[in-house]
Design goal:
about 210 residues, alpha/beta, Rossmann fold, seven-stranded mixed sheet, three-stranded antiparallel sheet, 10 strands, binds S-adenosylmethionine, CFA/CMAS
């Protein structure tokens, strides 16, 4: 397991400079608006919540929100945004592969543009943590970077291991980006019920909703 303290997270400096990095909710949220009541969701963890766009979005609908992220500046931005919306959420500074929550703490976990930021062994550990803190029959909604051998996106990046790239410039310089094959996705979700599986319009990500 990579040591959390040694992890490079370019998003921290980005949130410090501009706390409103992400404002509009992901388009899958309208589908989740319909699904969550059907699955009796009340407690939601936003894993890698960043500056809190989904904490605010679902908090406005009355869900009990918890956000975790490796970036202190991201959490501070989320806290300030929620205050202006008269909302509260528990926020935790935590690496996604060691979550400071008891088992069965959540009815749903959402995670957008986050889980790919690790080496594959650490991603496997993250899925164990997700499984631990999500209650039986709870929902996981996430997106994952898609492996695309034709893509030019990581042509200047360093290959850290098969399908994991480390950009050498930009906000995400030094951060691993694992690109998932469909086989890996189904291995990681072995034993889960897949409710929704899509490649997004941008073709760069899988969007997945699965039930534990
Ligand atoms: C592209 S941003 C997305 C933020 C948010 N999920 C959203 O959709 O607005 C990626 C986020 O992942 C967080 N992150 C990166 N590595 C992480 C780790 N190991 N554990 C927890 N969060 C991490 C970053 O701090 C950043 O907030």
């Amino acid at each position: 397991m990579q040591n959390s303290k040694k992890k490079i997270n370019g998003w921290d400096a980005a949130y410090k400079e501009n706390p409103q990095q992400f404002v509009e909710p992901d388009r899958i949220c309208t589908l989740l608006d319909n699904l969550f009541p059907k699955y009796h969701v009340e407690r939601i963890l936003d894993l890698g919540c960043g500056n809190g766009r989904h904490l605010v979005y679902f908090g406005k609908s009355g869900y009990q929100m918890v956000g975790s992220d490796l970036s202190g500046w991201g959490l501070q931005a989320a806290q300030k945004w929620m205050q202006t919306e008269n909302q509260t959420a528990r926020l935790a500074l935590a690496d996604m592969q060691a979550l400071p929550f008891a088992k069965d703490s959540f009815d749903a976990i959402i995670s957008f543009r986050v889980i790919q930021h690790n080496l594959y062994a650490d991603i496997q550990q993250t899925f164990q943590e997700i499984r631990r803190v999500l209650r039986s029959e709870g929902l996981l909604a996430m997106d994952l970077l898609r492996y695309d051998p034709e893509s030019e996106r990581f042509k200047d990046a360093v290959l850290a291991e098969p399908h994991t790239y480390i950009p050498q410039s930009g906000t995400e310089e030094g951060m691993p980006h694992h690109t998932f094959t469909t086989t890996e996705v189904f291995q990681l979700l072995h034993g889960w019920k897949i409710k929704f599986f899509d490649t997004q319009a941008d073709q760069k990500h899988f969007t997945i909703i699965a039930q534990k």
